[in-house]
Design brief:
The protein is an alpha/beta fold and 288 residues long. 42% of the residues lie in helices and 15% in strands. It has helices at residues 8-28, 44-59, 75-87, 106-112, 124-131, 140-151, 171-180, 195-199, 245-248, 263-287; strands at residues 4-5, 34-40, 63-69, 93-96, 160-164, 184-188, 204-207, 225-228, 232-233, 239-240, 254-255. The strands form 3 sheets. It has a 6-stranded parallel sheet. A 3-stranded parallel sheet has the order 3-2-4, sandwiched between helices. The chain has a two-stranded antiparallel sheet with strand order 9-10. Strand 9 (232-233) and strand 10 (239-240) form a beta hairpin. The longest helix has 25 residues, at 263-287. Bound molecules: NADPH dihydro-nicotinamide-adenine-dinucleotide phosphate.
């Protein structure tokens, strides 16, 4: 059997085109959707992520502002910056690039972002609303995976989805979104004994582990849909996912590559959330 490759780059581009049209509409009404990106310190990976996010914003006509703070910034100074951004009319979305330096309380920082501008969907308010199925900003990576499945015509309802990983930003919300679409969901993690006995039951397998080429053929039920969230470097320093693509490709019905799978969708959904925030603000202003 040979599997269909889910092309995240192509699907992402398609969605970005429709987001761009919404940006144009907002501009006609005098609004430029604005994203503020807060970067603390000099982490090279974070710098690359932030640069890509800014570039993607600008490519579709959105405004983006980088707030660069030194590694030794105090917690209070960082919170003050966020409070200031919460008040700004030209900023519709706020993103704080993680991880933050150890002396900063990450939870306090995220909780300070106004829920109306929490386009990463990480704040307790956004997470609570997502759990309750209420209107909110969905965390970009799991939101992107849902779009990949939808655009690839993969039915979720009634399927058994197994998630490997339970982080706050990927694994946990991923399971919730699949559950909301009527999948039966199993979470697995580092304390799960005999992992393959669970993953082999998956119609849809989501790998969000952070370990290079960790998922192999022995984890897969033939014909499963395999979504690889991981972004890792292998022993040759080559970019790779959590799934051993070459080993698994023949067994899966659909599979996402790394790069070019889930990665491009994460930024796409950030753009989507920011435009949504600007649209909501416009509606609110009109109603007042
Ligand atoms: P975390 O390190 O926060 O979480 C990893 C999860 O994997 C944990 O829940 C951990 O379990 C579990 N795990 C670790 N080892 C095993 C094991 N041997 N067996 C089963 N489960 C295990 O990572 P993230 O969720 O933040 O990210 C996961 C991957 O996705 C990374 O490669 C990251 O770079 C990538 N990523 C990609 C994005 C994209 O845009 N494509 C966006 C965000 C992340 P436990 O909880 O027990 O420790």
């Amino acid at each position: 059997m040979s599997s269909a490759i889910i092309n995240g780059k192509e699907i992402g581009q398609e969605i970005r085109k429709s987001v761009e049209k919404r940006v144009e509409k907002l501009k006609e009404q005098g609004i430029i959707p604005g994203l503020a990106v807060v970067l603390v310190g000099e982490n090279p990976a974070s710098k690359t992520y932030v640069a890509n996010k800014q570039k993607s914003c600008e490519a579709i006509g959105m405004f983006s502002e980088l707030i660069k703070l030194p590694e030794d910034v105090t917690q209070e100074a960082l919170l003050d910056q966020i409070r200031g951004l919460n008040e700004r009319e030209d900023i519709h979305g706020i993103l704080v690039q993680l991880p933050l330096p150890k002396h900063i309380d990450e939870e306090a920082v995220i909780a300070t972002i106004s829920p109306e501008k929490d386009v990463d969907g990480f704040s307790p308010v956004s997470v609570g609303k997502m759990m309750l199925g209420q209107d909110t900003y969905l965390p970009c990576t799991p939101f992107g995976v849902m779009k990949l499945l939808e655009h690839s015509g993969i039915e979720v309802a009634g399927k058994h989805a197994v998630i490997v990983g339970r982080s706050h930003i990927v694994g946990k919300p991923m399971g919730q979104l699949l559950l909301q679409k009527d999948a039966t969901v199993t979470y697995t993690h580092s304390k799960t004994p005999d992992l393959p006995s669970f993953t082999k039951q998956a119609d849809i397998l989501i790998a969000a582990v952070g370990r290079a080429n960790f998922i192999t053929k022995e984890h897969i039920k033939p014909g499963a849909v395999v979504i690889d969230v991981g972004i890792n470097r292998d022993e040759n320093n080559k970019l790779c996912g959590d799934v051993d693509f070459a080993d698994v490709a023949d067994a899966a019905s659909h599979i996402t590559p790394v790069p070019g799978g889930v990665g491009p969708m994460t930024i796409t959904m950030l753009l989507e959330n920011t435009v949504q925030a600007a649209e909501k603000k416009l509606e609110q202003d009109k109603a007042e």
